[in-house]
Each structure stands twice: as C-alpha cells, then as structure tokens.
C-alpha cells in the first residue's frame, strides 16, 4: 500500500466555480502509478470550497455560483462583518459546499463520471491563492 501526500498552491481566482481537474492530474503525476486507490482533496480555507459537478456545459458553474449568491447574499444581517461584507457569505457557501472530496482511482486515472469535473469554488471577491492537500493511497501498478 502506497501513501503519497502533496500540497498544491492554486493562484487567485475571481469569484465563481472554476474547473481544476486538469491541475490536479498535472500536478500529481503519481496518480498514473496507482492500480486501485483513493485520492482525497482537502482545501485549507474557510471561504472557498471544493465540489464535483458537470463539466460539459459552461452554464452549470455559472448557475451554481448564482444559486449560492442567492442562498447566502451579502445583504443579510450577519454578525461577523469585520473582514468585509463578502466574508460571512463566503463561510456559509463553503460550509454548504464542503472542504474535501474523495475520488476513486483505477488504472492510473481518476474514476470521475463522463460529465464530472473537480471545481474550486471561490466565494470571496478578492480570494487569495488557495492551498489544497492531496492524499493518495492505493496499490501501485507494479504491486
């Protein structure tokens, strides 16, 4: 059983839902060596999140972002306001979407469905670069 852990740094993104599947695969070459296993992704932030969703139609992330803005609007009587009007809505959205994902790996590839992609959800107007911890466990192709 092999365990590999890596931290990747993503650049700042504007608010919205951004595909990062290709970055994960490109920056974690060891995925290609795993016969069967799991990849766990954890974002180390409370105002951004991760999700898996449709990657075939670019309207999906746009609509998802609009729905989140409706569910957690800036114009709400939040008590936590010291970091700006977009901070508490960002915490709400991050809690709704989640901070981690676990994806099966088989034959050196992520076992995402045909229409699925991994997305970073940036909930702040001026998000900083985001850190994601990738933990891969599994049996390698040589085992």
Provide a descriptive summary of the structure in words.
With 143 residues, the chain is an alpha+beta fold. It has one domain (10-31, 43-101, 112-132): Sandwich (Jelly Rolls), CATH 2.60.120.460. Helix content is 22%, strand content 40%. The radius of gyration is 16 Å and the shape is elongated. The mean pLDDT is 96.
N-to-C SSE string, H for helix and E for strand: EEHEEHHEEEE
Helicity level: 10-25%
Major sheet: 5 strands, antiparallel
Mean pLDDT: 96
Radius of gyration: 16 Å
Number of domains: 1
Query: Which secondary-structure class do the elements indicate?
Result: alpha+beta
Low-confidence runs: none
Overall shape: it is: elongated
Q: CATH homologous superfamily, by name?
A: YjbQ-like
* Approximate strand percentage: 35-45%
- How many helices in DSSP terms? 3
Second CATH tier, the architecture? Sandwich
Could you say what the CATH topology is called? Jelly Rolls
The number of distinct β-strands equals 8
| Strand adjacency order, main sheet | 1-8-3-5-6
SSE topology:
Layout: E1 2-10, E2 16-19, H1 21-27, E3 34-43, E4 48-54, H2 59-71, H3 87-97, E5 100-106, E6 109-110, E7 116-122, E8 130-140
Antiparallel strand pairs: 1-8, 2-7, 3-5, 3-8, 4-7, 5-6
In short:
Helix content is 22%, strand content 40%.
Name a few traits of the molecule.
143 residues; alpha+beta; Jelly Rolls; 5-stranded antiparallel beta sheet; 3 helices; 22% helix; 40% strand
